[in-house]
Each structure stands twice: as structure tokens, then as C-alpha cells.
Amino acid sequence: MKKVVVIGAGPGGLSAAMLLAHRGYEVHVYEKAACVGGRNRCLQLEDYRFDLGPTFWSMIHLAEEQFASIGKNLHEYMAVTDLSHMYDLYFADGEKLTVTRDQAEMSQRLATQFPGNEHGYQQFLIENRERMRALTPILRQPMQKWRDYIQPEVIRALPKLQLTKSLANELTRWFSAPNLQLAFGFQAKYLGMSPQECPAAFSILAFMEHEYGIMHVRGGLNQLSHSMAKIVQEGNGYLHLQQPVQQILVEQNRATGIRLANDEVVDADYVIINEDFAQAMTEQFAEGVLKKYTPEKLAKRKYSCSTLMFYLGIKQKYPDIAHHNIIFSDDYEQSLQEIFGEYTLPTSPSIYLQNASVTDHTLAPNGHSTFYILAPMPNNVSGADWNETQVEHYRQWIFSRIETKLGVKFQEHIQVQAVITPNDWQKNYDVYKGAVFNLSHQLTQMMTFRPHNQFEEIEGVYLVGGGTHPGSGLPTILESGRISAELIQKSHEG
Ligand SMILES: Cc1cc2nc3c(=O)[nH]c(=O)nc-3n(C[C@H](O)[C@H](O)[C@H](O)COP(=O)(O)OP(=O)(O)OC[C@H]3O[C@@H](n4cnc5c(N)ncnc54)[C@H](O)[C@@H]3O)c2cc1C
After folding, report:
1. Are 270 and 488 in contact, with CB atoms under 8 Å apart?
2. pLDDT attached to residue 183
């Protein structure tokens, strides 16, 4: 029986571990933290429970398929709600748009609020259905070598992807109203990018929501990681929490195992890295082992933005605030320029507010709520000093802005709160430069140009998670787990 070691129990690592543990491998997951999930873990503050990171989950059928491939029914592990009211958008000019799961209702809403744009919406759906069909084979197979590009389905797909055009530009074909260009373009932030730098192909991000919906899981999306961890242990898999890996051991360019921080050596036939990609490259190999991903070369790569987070436990219910809300910056272009162009702190950042208690009563005590607040910030290339004064400045600015734009009062009802700054992401969560959405997704860092699932530099090493193909975001991260698991199987099964 082949033995596999997985470094990190984030969703990418758990996906690969779960599949392999049910396909005849002995799998050992070593996780530095005291709990599973990585950025997809649960954050508990007194009686309130939050998702630390991901809150939007789309394309759940990919996960259902993955679970089913090892005889598991995802819905026996998680209670999933398909949100009919997907999100509310608050624009700078005071307009508010409710985005619904029902496309006919959405079309009607657009016809009323943005007359004429409902036709663009229909066209957006038609063209992106086609684009999604074209892109799927690329996202679902390894892109290891140049010859992967000359497979017929990839060649057919490439022209549909408009890879050299920007998303911002692409959206003007469907929507004349600037607010709608925002409504269908802000999803670039999921990749930690601006719509200007994000390739047009990523119009599929908004499409995914409109076509496949946005799911909430009772107890939070962290339940996805908890479920996968359970399934790992139901198979031939073992979780080792609070066991940081110190180094991957390499002999004659092949991984032979790992050394833990407590100096214990664990032999393995395969090593899967789920730790943040660039962070792992900087700390998991002895000096001189890597040639392509040296610290200097890693520093030249482009990374996503970071986030400033507030998690609030509140002694009030807010039934009139949607589950997901986005309050756009008063000057969206300027805030993008500050975050992505100049790496300076934004004057008026956009804000995402999740009021999950409106859907899920298990997250807070009766009559109470959890507010999860995210503001995009430059990654730590900015050199920003996230001292208490800086955090306090944003706390006051962001909280007041939410109160003004949504017409609610919550500050005097806060019972408990936590904050995570870009520096904290780097120091406490091992995220390289605090770039929480990983390597960014411009053409030069996608597909074959992204670090490969079967690691290019050392044999026996595989990558999973947001830093490898097909990319950052839960659906693609789960796919990275499936792709790497299958590559491992193929490597000795032929
Ligand atoms: C604030 C935020 C919001 C997000 N929102 C969304 C969203 O709404 N939808 C979406 O699809 N995606 C979202 N994402 C992106 C993405 O889905 C998550 O970041 C996801 O958790 C990344 O998974 P991963 O498997 O790449 O790695 P991670 O979740 O980072 O897991 C890596 C694991 O490796 C462990 N580790 C690190 N070093 C070591 C070591 N030396 N030894 C052992 N273990 C180690 C870490 O502790 C961690 O558990 C969001 C991310 C963030 C941060």
C-alpha cells in the first residue's frame, strides 16, 4: 500500500486526502493548526460561530460528484441551502440591486431598474453558458505541459476565452449601465484581482452564481472541510493536528518524506503540499534544492490582494439585511488603483457584509447575529503598518459606512469582535505576503504557467489548493485535489 503525506488540512488537502484514503492509499494529513479547514475553518468567539474565509460556494455539483466518486453523499454530511435571494448590492449613487437565483425574476428586475439591460443579461447568460462549456475541460484536467494545449477540446476552447481582453472591457458588451458592469464584474475580487486586470474569461464567475446559485451550509462553509476530514478518517486516513511540517525530505530529486517540527521523520511515497504555495516554497525545501521557485523568483510573481476582516457577535437580529451584501466604494476605480496599482491603503474601500444569521440560527444565540465584514486591501507588498491606530481608523470608517448605507444601527450592540489584518494573514495564517487569494490569475500565471499539480521541480511531490491549477476559489481548489489525486494514481497504475 502506497503512503501519502499531505501538508495542511485546508479544503485542497482534504479533498485529495479524502479521495486517496478511499482508493487504497494510506493517507496522513499533517496540520499546523489545532483544527482543520485552513482559511476555510470555523472561528468561534464565545457563543458566535463564523467562517474565517470563504462564504460564497457555487458549483456545488463538482463537490457532489467528488463525494459520489468514493460512494459518499455530500448531503448526508452537510445541510445545504440554495440562497434564492443571492445578494444585495449597494452602489455609490444610492441605488440598491437585489440579485436573485431565479433568472426570470432577475431579468424582470433589470428591466425595471436598468431598462434595456435585461437583453444584455440574457445574452450574458447565453454566451457564458457556451464559455463555461469551453472552459470546463481546461479547468478539469491537469495543464502540465505544452502538449496539453494541443488537445482538441482545449484548442476549440481558447478563442472563446478572450484571454487577452479584460473583464471590465468584456462586460460593456452586455451591460450599458455602469452599476451593472460592477454587479457582474466585482467577482474578480474572488481571485483578488480588479476587473481591469482580470481576463475576460472570468465573466464565468458571475455566471456561475446566476446559473448554479450560491450555497450556504448550516454552521457555515467550514462544514465542508469538517465533512471532508470526517470522510478521510472513515477511509484509510489519519489526521495529525498541531503537527507543523518543517521540511520535505528529498533524495536524488525525489521526495522521500517529511520532517516534522518535533524532528520526527515520516517516510512517504508521495507528498502533497496544501500549505500556501509561495510560503511552502520558501520554507519546505532545504536551501538550493529548488531552481524555479527560489525566493527571488517568487518575489517577482504577482499576488492577489489581501483583506481586512472584522467578525462581530451582535445582540440583535437584522431580518431586513440580506445574507450577503456588497457596498461599493464611492470611487470604485480609485480604490482599485490604490489596492492593485499603487499598493496603498484605499481611501474608500468596498465592503462585503455577511449577515448569515438571517438564514442560519445555529451561528449565534437566540435573537443575536453574526456580522462578517471584509474589506479588500493591498497585500503586504504595500509595507503598510497595521498598527492599532490604522485598524481603528478603518473600524470606525467601515462600521459607520455600513450603518449609513444600510440604515441600521449595530455598533452599540456588539458583544464580541475579532479583527484580522493583512499582516495577521501572513504572520498567523502563513499566507505569503498576506495575499489571501494566492497567486493572481493573469494569463502569465494560469494553466501551464501556474505551478503544476504534479510539481515541476521534485518528483513525488504534488500541489493542491489555490496556488496551483486550476486556481483560487472553493470549486477550483476541490478540483486541484481531484486532479492531484488522479495524477498520483496514474503515476503507478499507468
Ligand atoms: C477572507 C477570505 C474569503 C474568501 N472567500 C471565498 C469565497 O467566498 N468563496 C470561495 O470559493 N473562496 C473564497 N476564498 C478563497 C479560498 O476558497 C480559501 O482561501 C481556501 O480556504 C483556500 O484553500 P487551500 O486549500 O488553498 O488552503 P488553506 O485553506 O490556506 O489551507 C492550508 C493549510 O495548510 C496549513 N499549513 C500551513 N503551513 C503548514 C505546515 N508547515 N505544516 C502543516 N500544515 C501547514 C495551514 O494551517 C492551513 O490549514 C476566501 C479566502 C479568504 C482568506
Report:
1. yes
2. 97
Q: pLDDT (tens digit, 9 = 90+) per residue, 252-286?
A: 999 999 999 999 999 999 999 999 999 999 999 99
DSSP sequence for 37-84? -GGG-EEEETTEEEESS---B--HHHHHHHHHTTT--GGGT--EEE-S
Last residue of a domain, one of 178, 210, 242: 210
The residue whose C-alpha atom lies closest to atom 48 belonging to ligand 1 is 38
Q: Is 100 contained in some domain?
A: no
Model confidence over 439-492: pLDDT tens digits? 887 777 777 888 999 999 999 999 999 999 998 899 999 999 999 999 999 998
Cα-to-chain-centroid distance, residue 470: 12
Mutational test site, ligand 1, from 55, 191, 274, 482, max ligand atoms within 8 Å of CB: 274
Q: How far is the CA of 188 from the centre of ligand 1 (A)?
A: 18
The ligand 1 site (C-beta within 6 Å) comprises: 7-13, 30-33, 38-40, 53-56, 190, 244-245, 274-276, 307, 374, 430, 436-437, 465-466, 472-474, 477
* Predicted local confidence at residue 151, as pLDDT: 66
Co-location of 365 and 395 in the same domain = yes
Q: Is residue 424 part of a domain?
A: yes
- Could you tell me what percent of the chain has a pLDDT over 70? 96
Atom of ligand 1 nearest to the CA of 475: 11
**Which residue range forms the structural domain that includes residue 351?**
302-429
Please list, residue by residue across 220-232, b when 16 or more beta carbons sit within 10 angstroms of its beta carbon and e when fewer do.
Answer: bbbbbbbbbbbbb
Distance 191 CA to ligand 1 centre (A): 13
Q: Are residues 309 and 390 in the same domain?
A: yes
The protein residue with its alpha carbon nearest to ligand 1, atom 3, reads 53
Helix axes 474-493, 11-21, angle to 10 degrees: 40
Q: Ligand 1 mean position to 432 CA, how many Å?
A: 12
- Provide the domain count of the chain: 3
245 Cα nearest atom in ligand 1: 42
Q: Is residue 480 part of a domain?
A: yes
Query: Contact at 8 Å (CB) between 14 and 232?
Result: yes
pLDDT at 38 over 90: yes
